[in-house]
Amino acid sequence: MRKDEHPDGVPLTDEELSALDAHWRAANYLSVGQIYLMDNPLLRKPLEAAHIKPRLLGHWGTSPGLNLVYTHLNRVIRRRGLDALCIWGPGHGGPAVLANSWLEGSYSETYPDVSRDEEGMSRLFRQFSFPGGVPSHVAAETPGSIHEGGELGYSLSHAYGAALDNPDLLVACVIGDGEAETGPLAASWHSNKFLDPVHDGAVLPVLHLNGYKIANPAVLARLPEAELDELLRGYGHDPLHVTGDDPHQVHQAMAAAMDTALDAIRGIQQAAREGGPARRPRWPVIVLRTPKGWTGPQTVDGLPVEGTWRAHQVPLAAVRDNPDHLAQLEAWLRSYRPEELFDDQGRPRAEVLACVPQDRQRLGATPHANGGLLVRDLPIPALERFAVPVEEPGSTLHEPTRVLGDLVEGVMAATADRRDFRLVGPDETASNRLQAVYAASGKAWQAQTTSTDEHLDRHGRVMEILSEHTCQGWLEGYLLTGRHGLFSCYEAFVHIVDSMVNQHIKWLRTSRALHWRAPVASLNYLLTSHVWRQDHNGFSHQDPGFVDHVLNKSPEVVRVYLPPDTNTLLCVADHVLRSRDYVNVVVAGKQPCFDWLTLDEARVHCARGAGVWEWAGTEDSTREPDVVLACAGDVPTHETLAAAGLLRRHLPGLAVRVVNVVDMTRLMPQDAHPHGMADSEFDALFTPDKPVIFAYHGYPWLVHRLAYRRTGHANLHVRGYKEMGTTTTPFDMVVRNDLDRYRLVMDVIDRVPGLGARAVGVRQAMADARTRHHAYIREHGTDMPEIADWTWSG
Amino acid sequence: MRKDEHPDGVPLTDEELSALDAHWRAANYLSVGQIYLMDNPLLRKPLEAAHIKPRLLGHWGTSPGLNLVYTHLNRVIRRRGLDALCIWGPGHGGPAVLANSWLEGSYSETYPDVSRDEEGMSRLFRQFSFPGGVPSHVAAETPGSIHEGGELGYSLSHAYGAALDNPDLLVACVIGDGEAETGPLAASWHSNKFLDPVHDGAVLPVLHLNGYKIANPAVLARLPEAELDELLRGYGHDPLHVTGDDPHQVHQAMAAAMDTALDAIRGIQQAAREGGPARRPRWPVIVLRTPKGWTGPQTVDGLPVEGTWRAHQVPLAAVRDNPDHLAQLEAWLRSYRPEELFDDQGRPRAEVLACVPQDRQRLGATPHANGGLLVRDLPIPALERFAVPVEEPGSTLHEPTRVLGDLVEGVMAATADRRDFRLVGPDETASNRLQAVYAASGKAWQAQTTSTDEHLDRHGRVMEILSEHTCQGWLEGYLLTGRHGLFSCYEAFVHIVDSMVNQHIKWLRTSRALHWRAPVASLNYLLTSHVWRQDHNGFSHQDPGFVDHVLNKSPEVVRVYLPPDTNTLLCVADHVLRSRDYVNVVVAGKQPCFDWLTLDEARVHCARGAGVWEWAGTEDSTREPDVVLACAGDVPTHETLAAAGLLRRHLPGLAVRVVNVVDMTRLMPQDAHPHGMADSEFDALFTPDKPVIFAYHGYPWLVHRLAYRRTGHANLHVRGYKEMGTTTTPFDMVVRNDLDRYRLVMDVIDRVPGLGARAVGVRQAMADARTRHHAYIREHGTDMPEIADWTWSG
């Protein structure tokens, strides 16, 4: 029957239907094969236990649904000539995506040893979840992917990130009903309030309700359909339902839904791009309701499997030992009629490939999923435009992030036409003093506006939503598709995305080892509103531990910078924005901070990563220092300099060296991090045997963890944040945590031998100053004048 | 005009309206006073700069809305005799909650020095955000609070946690429109699918749309009302709208909405408790739309403030220096007509207090917000019932978490009537092998069911939703209101709640220092499906860093246990379930694991936290060991014992000591953690000078960070996970990370001097075994028989 013979107007002719179904069956067959087979890939022989993998690993349950979506995306991509990318939220369904990539040929092009024939099929099967093979999930190794989907929650924000500034791209996004329960996913539905139909591409969410998670029903699958529709409309979408377990009926319904959705998207984009009224559209969403483990065993050992949670991983678990299971597996595999799908050489037959698009339009071959192929160097203006003049160290003050805002504005302006740079943050751009950027771009916003709003812009590239998860997901999607960005965040609350950055680091670590993945722009964090200056918020906003978290991860990927002043922040920012394949963490204050280094000095200092500030110390060429005052971070540097000044005045005979560390990984051993210093270098900087009083921005033991192998480690005494926080004055915060200038001087006196009676008196004076401080703040609520008015030069 | 004179049937008489408005004005006045005033609290004198705090800190914007909700909750609590608790999502509006607590008297009862009179008011004002005073947020210091609201996102899950198993409790929950954008909040709306109207109390969400966050409009505030209603109905709620900026009109609307909501709740509960049809009700939600900074300055310096983001913190910033600002502040304060609100002694007048309930019904005095007053010891069955027999070490295998499941089932059964214990987890109870618990309680579930479902139970106390955030929020709310629980989670994905556990630890740290807060049950994590056994999932599921994260926090609160086998897990679980005011992290495997210790031995070992396993070593009383093999965690213990066996066989002359560590904080210095060992004890256990090869479950440098001050630290060599992960065999995972038995033996040979030629041969044999392993797994996909079949006794 041809299409025009269908009285009910279904979209597919019988021929199309047959071809789509063949493709889907082929993908299902290949998915099952990957989970089970070591040998006999085309079932040319009766199936035997010896053909079965010794360890059965993987996830069948979601695979047939993913195969259906891939198949139908192929159809519309080919038919409409689309540029498309798909995010596979249930990425544990790795077999499905690998199967489709192999079918379309992109897998063999990426990995020529896995050819598109019987031998290649055999390798495809064997390598899956096999030692030395490929991981069980969609991962960096998977062609066409920018999203692993191992830790659930980020598919939709990744999809939006990919769509931003890609006006001709369709980003489909399969969301599992398990993933839909997570917070990050739930928040990211509102991303459509930030998607510009003029400059951005489209996101087509496919909410896949297969009913069960690992062992439980999924919440959204168990809402009455009307209630689910209310929810999706409340998210700003128009739902299209595809429901069923009869493949032919579902193919027709899915094709119809895809056509309707893509027509709607085209309509929305055309209207917006032809200057139609600027109102937020309702974007389509497809709700796909098919059984978990669809087409797999209906029952196993008398228990229902298809359509239940029992289909989640490996439905037949005892295939090697239980002949019934083996027979059931063989029947299952043969139910796809492999002989109709693959030719004598094991190549997919023409009908199977009829729906597959060509070249870069194949989902496994799109360069958008290998963003390094598309990324261009970011046009960063010369830092001289922004650098602050420094006549002498510590005589002027600037707010480092405010000056950085000028640089970001410069980058934003320089990318106005290219549109390949975004600034993201959880409603903190202005709070973090980066608001200069609004001169070059407003804030993306498609929802209602009022007359009191400022800087909202339907076409803006500053992205603010009060969801660190969504910010991170957007940026990851944006970077992995070949663009650039910066995430500015309160230091304490970046922990909200601890687990997301884990996954991104793992992705980059894996990508770097793949010959075919080109380097992408680094994920850059600016952490500000930091632990030492939470005047408005106190204890809940005090946590410098993100650095510790990140430094646990793959050293080839992670970088941590603590610029001590404005010009060093500019140099660090310039460096990280140019870099590739890293996660860069930059911690810098937004409060007025003394300028210590000129731009040229800052450049040299940042290039070294750590160095002696000769002007601040009192050692001379004739002898070694008696003590090293080391510091990392803006507030610790300030206190260290103040301590150096006190020592210079009160103990003038003492030879003090001041060392500042910008790049924390310099402290690590050379074999533990690419930036690690040689021991000889470390000894030269910190001395092998003198006391080192190290004032560090965060948790003090981190410095020990980085430096424990160093010669002089036993002489290292670190001060830092030790969870002594509340709403109080800035100086009281350092006093509470024993990071203040007076305590640092006491530490020096306690650790340098033979300082004599004068030092005893100085020590007492320091202790008295701390006592005076306590009394003063309780009386006045502000820091003592000697603190507030202190300058290095004074 | 009396109520019966109102033609439109508004709920409040003029007298009631006047009294409610007086209370609200008083709370607003006190809120502003806290932000600004050091002196002259009742404005008896004209306001002068000297009366103004030198540092103006706090958040005005949300305060009038919170004051409105508090006022109207007072009304319904008093009128209906309710037992109620309120979660203040916008907890940065600390001034509001403090003001109300002071008005109702609960503040002065808790802190007698802040009396309910002029002097107390003066102290209330001065102490706010002042050094030595109280934090600017609702915090543990705030009477009536279990929720800080500093890090946004958790109000609603806390509210549900508080309502569970509290059938007579109303938990109101104010959700800011900023917080509503976060993922955790977005996910937690679906908590109503888990709330049992029979055994649980009610949650009444009040979504407060004041329109702006710090600097941006809020998404939900900028949806058309019809779209917002669809969203809320999609969440399973019936929205009631209260909108306006005219106080009297808003009071009437709010009173009406509260009455409607509470009538609906009563109806739902009555129907369910009288055995009505078991269907999920639609619970009410109030949408409160009032201006940000309502009743504050309309404009400042010519710019609009009320109703905009400029009202977020301190609307008049230059009051001490700018006479116009000072005058504007005075006019603002006087607009509340303090003279009508407070008597000559500064006490609230009777009209102001007319709506305030009595005693424990006051929101600031409810014992539900001081759960330690309500908590009872958990009935934990004797461990003998569950312990596994151990004839000799390492001869039998058990799955530790499966046996733990029996214990949890015992606790669940013993609390069947009390209903004060819950097990929470993100759809992993069965995956984590705790399914025995279903014999005592099913899984809470109020959504649709099908015939294939298992263990779903409208009245169940096992809570599973695929949102770690929601699990954590539920449990925190449950514990802080005086109950018990356990959170079982995949080890890698507990990082999802890194920031939440930060906040809970901070809460407990602060609570412990407050005389009036009674200790609550600890927050207990069971982390399983751990890094070493991710056979199905690979690299994305491999992260043991939660321990590192937690150990950065307040040592008086955090505890970390790595039981090496089943009986030690039972002992640890028993201990943590009995404990108070801690965050306990227990890491244990679910895969078959050798039994090393009998229950009695396990008790002793766990009590010590770390100890020598004499039976495993080869030292004797005549001499010191040549080397110490230390281990922590089940897989490292297994490999260490295997290494000890190899050494015993191949280097019989070597005196080996085996040390197992269960309690990681024992490694810390005595002054750094309450469990820290004395140096003498550490030296006795690990020796001061012998090589220590430490096989650790997680990132190896953690052990250095804990032990860097110890005498023998330079001899400590730690092996652990170093991000070398993928989908592979269990033994390949340890080989990839150099934690395997062969590598440990090589480490011993490399570090013990003078072992001679035989050791050279042994070392080569170990290296050969590793090579053999690599070849074997690539060929067979499984571990070598010598690995798979290994036993200690064999």
TrEMBL record, chains A, B:
Q: Could you tell me the superkingdom of the organism this chain comes from? A: Bacteria
Record-annotated Xylulose 5-phosphate/Fructose 6-phosphate phosphoketolase C-terminal domain positions = 590-792
From which residue to which does any coiled coil extend?
A: none
Its EC number is 4.1.2.-
> Which positions fall inside the Xylulose 5-phosphate/Fructose 6-phosphate phosphoketolase N-terminal domain?
12-373
Q: Which InterPro entries match?
A: Phosphoketolase, THDP-binding, Transketo_C/PFOR_II, Xul5P/Fru6P_PKetolase, Xul5P/Fru6P_PKetolase_C, Xul5P/Fru6P_PKetolase_CS, Xul5P/Fru6P_PKetolase_N, Xul5P/Fru6P_PKetolase_ThDP_BS
The answer to keyword Iron applying to this record is no
Family annotation (SUPFAM superfamilies): Thiamin diphosphate-binding fold (THDP-binding) (SSF52518)
Keyword tags: Lyase, Thiamine pyrophosphate
Extract the CDD domains matched here: TPP_PK
Required co-factors: thiamine diphosphate
* PANTHER family cross-referenced by the UniProt entry: PHOSPHOKETOLASE-RELATED
Name the family: Belongs to the XFP family.
What protein does this entry describe? Probable phosphoketolase
